[in-house]
């Protein structure tokens, strides 16, 4: 396997699964631990990861849509199906950027809904569904991340109203704060929250605590969290104190 390909696979493994040991990466890629150690040194020199005792962790930052779309697809589909069940025909829905929102859009075919989005992949998915009134927000195109951002997007949102917002995240802190790694997306997410009656956070197990340096909102601005695994005790307590309903894909947590 070429070094460049190994580097791509190492970064993908760290970004999707969190910190990993040299021995685990060696087994996953089918190369020697010594080779992995040399790869980690090179990737650290390039500023793409940080070596820790016995392994490495990825540096926080944006991940291209196409790369993230391949990760945890079954988990995202389970979350999307549960989220879609919250929506009644005739309602208006805001869909955030990200791959879980895209998986949710795939669940909406054949429904009588209004869908508002800054997510170009959601737009492409629903563009030919004549039963759905589709509103694409304006803004500056972020090509690799398939989204629209900027003051035009935020201004559009001030003129709109939605029954539901389905919000993505990079991480949820134990205090219930919703975080994001992409600072430029945060004002759009905040504008989406203001434009919606109810906010539903879509977060798979990797998002607890996940990553992110920019705060999107606190737990008091959420109504529901849909996830695929039990939430840790500290985060659950913070969400419950704020009156947030935690819904497991497949069943509801009291």
TrEMBL record:
It comes from the Bacteria. InterPro entries: ArsR-like_HTH, Carb_Metab_HTH_regulators, DeoR-like_C, DeoR_HTH, NagB/RpiA_transferase-like, Tscrpt_reg_HTH_DeoR_CS, WH-like_DNA-bd_sf, WH_DNA-bd_sf. Coiled coil: none annotated. The keyword DNA-binding applies. Keywords: DNA-binding, Repressor, Transcription, Transcription regulation. The keyword Transcription applies. Repressor of the lactose catabolism operon. Galactose-6-phosphate is the inducer. PANTHER family: GLYCEROL-3-PHOSPHATE REGULON REPRESSOR, HTH-TYPE TRANSCRIPTIONAL REGULATOR SRLR-RELATED. This is Lactose phosphotransferase system repressor. It comes from Streptomyces canus. The lineage of its organism: Bacteria, Bacillati, Actinomycetota, Actinomycetes, Kitasatosporales.
């Amino acid at each position: 396997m070429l070094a460049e390909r190994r580097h791509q696979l190492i970064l993908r493994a760290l970004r999707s699964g969190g910190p990993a040991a040299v021995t685990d990466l060696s087994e996953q890629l089918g190369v020697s631990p010594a080779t992995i150690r040399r790869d980690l040194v090179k990737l650290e020199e390039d500023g793409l990861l940080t070596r820790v005792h016995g392994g490495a962790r990825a540096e926080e930052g944006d991940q291209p849509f196409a790369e993230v779309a391949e990760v945890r697809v079954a988990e995202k589909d389970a979350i999307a199906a549960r989220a879609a069940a919250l929506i009644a025909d005739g309602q208006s829905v805001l869909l955030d950027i990200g791959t879980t929102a895209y998986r949710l859009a795939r669940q909406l075919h054949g429904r009588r809904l209004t869908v508002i989005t800054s997510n170009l992949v959601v737009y492409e998915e629903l563009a030919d569904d004549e039963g759905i009134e589709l509103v694409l927000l304006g803004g500056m195109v972020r090509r690799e991340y398939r989204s629209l951002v900027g003051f035009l997007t935020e201004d559009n949102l001030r003129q709109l109203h939605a029954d539901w917002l389905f919000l993505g995240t990079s991480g949820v802190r134990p205090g219930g704060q919703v975080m994001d790694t992409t600072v430029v997306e945060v004002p759009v997410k905040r504008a989406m929250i203001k434009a919606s009656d109810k906010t539903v956070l879509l977060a798979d197990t990797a998002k607890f605590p996940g990553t992110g340096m920019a705060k999107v909102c606190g737990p008091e601005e959420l109504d529901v969290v849909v996830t695929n695994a039990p939430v840790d005790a500290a985060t659950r307590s913070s969400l419950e104190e704020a009156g947030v309903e935690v819904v497991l894909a497949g069943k509801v947590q009291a």
